[in-house]
Structures are given as structure tokens and as C-alpha cells.
Amino acid sequence: MSDRPHATVKVASYNIRKALGTDRRRNPLRILKVLQEIDADIVALQEADRRFGVRSSVLPQMLIDHHTDYVPVPLDVQQDSMGWHGNAILVRKGMEVTHHDIIHIPYLEPRGVVTATVETPGGAKLSVFGMHLDLSGLWRGRQARAITELAEAAQAQHPTVLMGDLNEWRIQSGAFREFGRSFAILDCGPSFHSSRPVGRLDRIMHCNRMVPRDYGVHRSALATTASDHLPVWAEFAVATGTKGTS
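C-alpha cells predicted for Endonuclease/exonuclease/phosphatase family protein (246 residues):
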């Protein structure tokens, strides 16, 4: 990729726990302030909608408009929901979303995946997958296999990044084996529990057309109380104006 023009793109993944903090207070504005601290271009959210009833978004659109530089990727689901089974993607204003979709995956408990193709102002076009995998290891492996097959097809067209709460404690797991067939899995660091992080549950994975420049866990006083997960982030150099495999 060194002989091609490239753009820098920062992505993040954050399980916001329906905006319920470790202090047991539901505070959507606090979540948005954490996103401001991270300052990513693209964010994959998990648990962005309420679980029961109409499953409305826990981040009111008015707050997003007034307190961030983001717009939610439209997923054409329920009118009051931001995501699909709680998964949502936010992109910085000025980015063009040329494709978006929801993906049904095998599950024991209700799960889904969201995806979008995004073009940055710098000219990088990439496919993004956001996910929150099952608590069952057997089902996580099946879900990872299904997602990997779709992401492999996507990376034939654009650089591809996958992000989310994998609910996986062991790097030798079936889910990691499935993802690792075609994607590099970044170890951003422990992100759960936010008050004393030991679990590397939140992951960012990428194809070989994206070169990681830096990555890690965002830990601040605000993030420690905003959710029981800390956000993870990565900054990539991404080739611009290219199609096909490299």
C-alpha cells in the first residue's frame, strides 16, 4: 500500500449498555461525551437500543445532533430504534454512506449484525461490520463463520473492518479461529469491566488493505462510569481509489 495514496481513518467500538453507567444512572449525554473524547470517524455501538417494548434508541437524535459531529447510519428498522438488535453505526458528518444493511445470523439469543459502506472525505472507501456475539461459545463460532463469509465478499470490493463485543475471553476460541482465517484481530487491551478491566471482550478486526497505525482502549474518568465496557479504538492507513484485492 506504500505506493498508493492513502487516508487515515479512526474507528471505535463501544458497548454502551443502554447508557446505564456503573453508578446505575442512565445518562445518554455521558455516552456522547465519551465519544467526543475518542474523536473517531466511525463508531460501532452495541446495546444502543432498549431491549424490551418498542426498543427505542437510548441516544435521542436531538442529543446526537446537538452534542456530536455524528449521524447514525440509517438501517430501515423500527422507527424509534437506532440499531438492529442494539447494534448501530455512527459516522462523522461529511462521510458518504453508499450502502447499508442488516444481517441475520444464527443465534441462541436474539443477535444481529449491521454493515455499511462508507466513503471518507479523504477518499477512502471501506466496508464496516458492527456486531455483538452470543454468550454461548458454540453459537459464537457459528456466528463468526457466517459473518466472516460475508466480510470476505465485502473485502473483495473495499478495505473491510469488523468491530464489536465478541463476548469471547479466550483467543483460542472457535470465533477467533473463524475471524482469523481472513482478518487480523487487534488486541486493543482489556475493556471489561470498566471499573477494573480484565476481559478483552471488545475487538477490532481488519483486512490486509488496512494498516494499523495505533490502537488501544479509551480509559478516562468519564468512560469508567458511563458503561461497564470501555471503548476500543484503532487508527488505520487505508488505500484510496482502489478496488479488488491487493
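The mean pLDDT is 92.
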